[in-house]
Amino acid sequence: MPSIASELSRRGGLATRSQLRVVGCSARSLRRFADDGNARSIRRSWLATPQAEPDAVRAVELGGILGGESALRSFGVWVSHNTGLCVATPPGASHLPTLGDDEYRVYPHDFAWPEGKRWRTDIVSALAQLAARVEPVHFIASVDSALNTNVMTAPQLADLFARLPRRFRRLRRLIEPRAESGLESIVRVAAMLEGWKVEVQVAVPRVGRVDLVINGWLVIETDGDQWHSSATQRAKDRRRDAGLVRRGMRCHRFGYAQVMGDLDGCIEIIRTLLAAGRP
After folding, report:
1. Which residues form the Restriction endonuclease type II-like domain (predicted)?
2. Which of 43, 63, 73, 146 could form a disulfide with 152 if both were Cys (CB 3.0 to 4.6 A apart)?
3. Are 194 and 175 in contact (CB under 8 A)?
4. Cα-flanking dihedrals φ and ψ of residue 105, to 5°?
5. Quick check: 111 and 63 in contact, CB under 8 A?
6. Cα distance between residue 234 and residue 239, in whole Å
7. pTM for this structure?
C-alpha cells in the first residue's frame, strides 16, 4: 500500500480522497490517517496536512480551488496587485460558505478539476481569469513572468490567447519571455505603446545586462526592493551607471513605488530624457 503521507506531500499536502484511493490508499486507511491527527478532513472529500498552503485550504473550505491571481501566486508568477483570495468555483455549485473579507469567487464556464495539485486551477485558466480583472499592462506582466519562469509553455500561450476574447489578440505582440521582473514588463509595455524602440535584457560590454534600452541609448533599470535595497547593491548599481555613461549612454532607475504608483509619471520622465537628446 502506498504511503498516504508521501502521496499527500506530492500533491502539496492537500488532495481529495478519490485521488488517494486511485493510487491504492484504502478508504479505511485514509480515515485512520485523519483520526490519528496526521491530516484534517475538509468538506468530507479532502484531506489536508500542515504542509498545505493556507490559501489553498481556505479555497477548498469555500467550495472551490485557488483561481486567478491566487493560483498564479502559488505558481510563483508575478501578480501586480493583491486584491484578495480568488476562489475558482464550479458553475452551479450551491450551499457555499459565506466569503470573508478580501475573498471573492469566480465561476469559469470551462471549470475543470486539474490533475495532480487539484487545489489550484491550471496556469492557462488562472491567466484567463486574471485577464478579466486587470489592466492589459498588468496582464502582460503576469504572462511574461509565467513564460520566463517556465511555468507556461509556448503551446499553452497559444491556448491562452485562443480562449481569450478577440480584443486581447493585439496584446500578444507585447509578450516578452525574456523579461525578468514584473516591473520591467510594465515599463517596457508602457514605453512600447508610446512608439519608442525598446530592447530588453541588453548585454552592455564591461557593464553587464541591463533591463531596457530605449531608442538605442537610454537605459532604464527597474529596481525591485528585494534586490536593490542593500548598501552593497546600491554601490554596484552606481558602478554600473558610471560604466554606461562612459559608453555614451544614459541611465535612469525607477523603484517599485514609482512604477506601481505613478506609471504615467515614469513615462513622462522617459519622454523628457529622450527629448534632451543623447549625451
Report:
1. 194-271
2. 146
3. no
4. -110, 150
5. no
6. 9
7. 0.92
- Is residue 226 over pLDDT 70? no
**Rounded to an integer, what distance in angstroms lies between the CA atom of residue 128 and that of residue 171?**
13
Residue type, 84: G
What is the residue-wise DSSP string for the chain? ---HHHHHHHTTTEEEHHHHHHTT--HHHHHHHHHTTSSEEETTTEEE-TTS-HHHHHHHHTTSEE-HHHHHHHHT---S----EEEE--TT--SPPPP-TTEEEE--TT--PPSSSTTB--HHHHHHHHHTTS-HHHHHHHHHHHHHTTSS-HHHHHHHHHHS-GGGGGGGGG--TT--SHHHHHHHHHHHHTT--EEEEEEETTTEEEEEEETTTEEEEEE-HHHH-SHHHHHHHHHHHHHHHHTT-EEEEEEHHHHHH-HHHHHHHHHHHHHH---
pLDDT recorded at residue 235: 78
Contact 156, 124 (CB under 8 A): yes
pLDDT at 263 exceeding the cut of 70:
yes
Domains contained in the chain, CATH given: 1-52 (no CATH), 54-171 (no CATH), 178-276 (3.40.960.10)
The confidence score (pLDDT) of residue 248 equals: 87
- Residue 228, C-alpha cell as written in the block: 536593490
The size of the chain, in residues, is 279
Predicted pLDDT at 222: 94
Inter-residue contact 40 to 94 (CB < 8 Å): no
CA distance 141 to 32: 46
Interval 26-77: pLDDT, tens: 999 999 999 999 999 999 899 999 999 999 999 999 999 999 999 999 999 9
Full DSSP string of 127-164? HHHHHTTS-HHHHHHHHHHHHHTTSS-HHHHHHHHHHS
